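Posting this for the archive.
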Amino acid sequence: MELLSNNKFRVLAVSLIIGNTFLLPITADEAYYFSWAEELSWGYFDHPPLVAWLLHFTSAEFLRIPFFLVVLLFCFLAKERLLQKFIFIPGAHLFLGVALPDTLLVISGFLVLHSFKKWANSPVIINAVILGVCIAALGYSKFHGILLVIALAVGYWNLRKQWTLYVSIGLAAALLLPYFIWQYNHDWVSFKYHFSGRFAVLSIFSLLEFLAFAVVLWWPLVVFFPRLHLWSKTLIIGAFLLFGWGAFQGSAEVHWLLVFMWVIPSIKLPEKSSTRAIAFLLFILHAVIWIPQVREQLGLQVHFREEISKIALDENVVFLDAYQDAALYEWATGKESYSFAHPGIRKSQYNLKRYPFDGEQVVVFNRMGMGLPYVDGPLFTVKETLYDLSGLEYQWEGWTLRFASEQVPKEYYWILYSYRDGAQQSRERLCPGSEIPNVHYRSGVEQFLTLEKNWLPSGLWIPLP
């Protein structure tokens, strides 16, 4: 009993991990990252590759197990008092036990903090090497890790003259070099997507909503902010500025704030029974999410999309404007699939993959009401023979598009899309795909040419010059 009494928050943390791992269905995002893992690569469309590397060595049934073991080890190594702080803050519960880059980001961030502390206390070569490896692991986890590196640089600027620090920096850069070479060879696709490839409408409401969720979930950071270390304050301010700007542009996610996990150890929670009671209450509130009926009432089922696992067809299946649906279908059935997207719909790893059914008839599942309804769910189906035309050879001569017309199959038409501030302004059908399109340029808008067949996209996306 004494052992249990001294580790009650460790037991709660482990219970959260077990519940999240084994009681929650696989989310659409997890299935998407699992789809990456079919092919090992130095990079992927959305995020650095560490999440896919880890998933490559597991199966669809057990894809969470590596992440479960990593977080479980962290909980056994962490101090009891620290685990109480994590349970006290509901935002920290989100990462426990699921197969996401955020899980690896949080764990590798703590490794950076631990190794940085050891190096600061003893700046010898071996500690510098370990720090460099941990920084590289952070870089391979998720882009948001740069916030921690910047925060430590600002908070410990006085250590800049330690020459072994540059051993760490040089080693981390060398280990990350293959990833940046991959980005260079793929035209910096991830950076272009994150900085300019998200179509969204500017909204002060989205910003206020994001800030409200951040304050509700991470309110102890607001309360204890004046007492935090300089690096912690730098991290919080940097995250609010970066993610706040993303929220204003309509493309921020609340779980990005998991970077605040690294600040939690610095918080001085009062040693009161009420503090412990709140931690237990938050554990119970988190646990009710494991009940399907509760998830349904809270509108959380959209993250699991259980209707996808009910698709039972022997035909080739692809999805329209829904890369997560395609990934979930692959995870649930073990069959190959694909996702075509219209201009203005966010791109995905499928834009970098080979289309497996080129010139074959496929069943196109969509949520736009096109075709026939599938069973009684939100999905509709259309049967069509589609081609991947993303590799069409073309060049601009002034405002005239020159292209290899023999590469365009019949029944495809040139379509011109126009967007302003992330909102579609118009869609114009121009001419058959074998003819040269007469482009109508409009100032102040983003315009894209594409080839479509009966409203179905081809993977081609040509920005106007």
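The first strand starts at residue 317 and ends at 320. Residues 182 and 230 are 35 Å apart (CA to CA).
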